[in-house]
Design goal:
- There is one protein chain.
- The protein starts with 8 loop residues before the first helix and ends in a 9-residue tail after the last helix.
- The longest helix has 22 residues.
- It has 257 residues and is an alpha/beta fold.
- The protein is globular.
- The protein has one domain: 3-Layer(aba) Sandwich (Uracil-DNA Glycosylase, subunit E), CATH 3.40.470.10.
């Protein structure tokens, strides 16, 4: 007789997803192959006006606030060099998602792939985050995802106090514009930084905190899940609890005491 606890459907799907990654990791992440598509018959389309690229201000010390909307804000602060990271970055990583998002996910800082593309959580951890959101019926397009820092620290080290001091007010303004229902810290560094605590992640999970007068939930960083799949059941549980809190509008719905 097996002594293993049966997995829920969502947990089993995540396990299957990891198995898929292990078999096709090279094709998925390292050297994607171009897809071959059969020839198709196209009909003439009316020419649409090409989308104009965003104009980024080169003001090195832009105002933190106020800004009318996220697009205006991104344009205004994209040339920031308030800290040394502004001079070493490749791309300024502002944030992505719905301007009407009820939930904002916050990481600590961009990584190498994010610095290359200019969008948050687009590497392996980001793909896993997308998968987890899909499994609970959400998508990247209906939440908002950003980081405390907008520029990548060297070698993906943790943010230092001066960088946080210079960049966190931008996060405050993003949250003011978005006015979400819930905030979610992705991982230990983001949670400890925003909550101003050294408490370990195991003590921060499963409790509703407060940040900028918003309910603040803490889950494992997707990168931690890639390193340790044993954390997956707790992460699935945390996301399902988050979903219940959002759907009910109650910051303690579904929390075990």
């Amino acid at each position: 007789m097996s002594d293993q606890t049966p997995k829920s459907p969502i947990q089993q799907k995540v396990v299957d997803y990891f198995s898929y990654i292990s078999l096709y990791e090279k094709e998925l992440y390292l050297s994607p192959q171009p897809q071959q598509h059969p020839p198709s018959i196209t009909t003439p389309q009316a020419k649409s006006k090409p989308k104009q690229p965003m104009t980024i201000s080169q003001n090195p010390y832009p105002e933190y606030s106020p800004h009318n909307d996220l697009v205006t804000m991104h344009s205004a602060i994209g040339g920031c060099i308030r800290c040394a990271l502004g001079s070493s970055r490749n791309k300024f990583v502002f944030g992505v998602g719905s301007k009407e998002a009820k939930v904002v996910f916050v990481g600590e800082a961009p990584g190498a792939e994010e610095d290359k593309q200019g969008f948050p959580f687009v590497g392996r951890a980001g793909k896993l985050l997308d998968h987890l959101l899909n499994e609970i019926g959400w998508s990247r397009e209906e939440v908002y995802i950003c980081n405390i820092l907008k520029c990548r620290p060297p070698n993906n080290r943790d943010p230092v106090p001066d960088e946080i001091e210079q960049c966190e007010p931008y996060l405050h303004e993003q949250l003011r514009i978005l006015n979400p229902q819930f905030l979610v810290a992705l991982g230990r560094v983001a949670a400890q930084t925003l909550l101003r605590t050294n408490a370990p992640l195991r003590e921060l999970r499963g409790r509703v905190h407060s940040y900028q007068d918003k309910p603040f939930w803490v889950i494992y960083h997707p990168a931690a899940l890639l390193r340790n799949q044993n954390l997956m059941p707790d992460t699935v549980k945390d996301l399902l609890t988050l979903k219940k809190m959002v759907e009910t509008g109650q910051a303690d719905a579904g929390i075990s005491t």
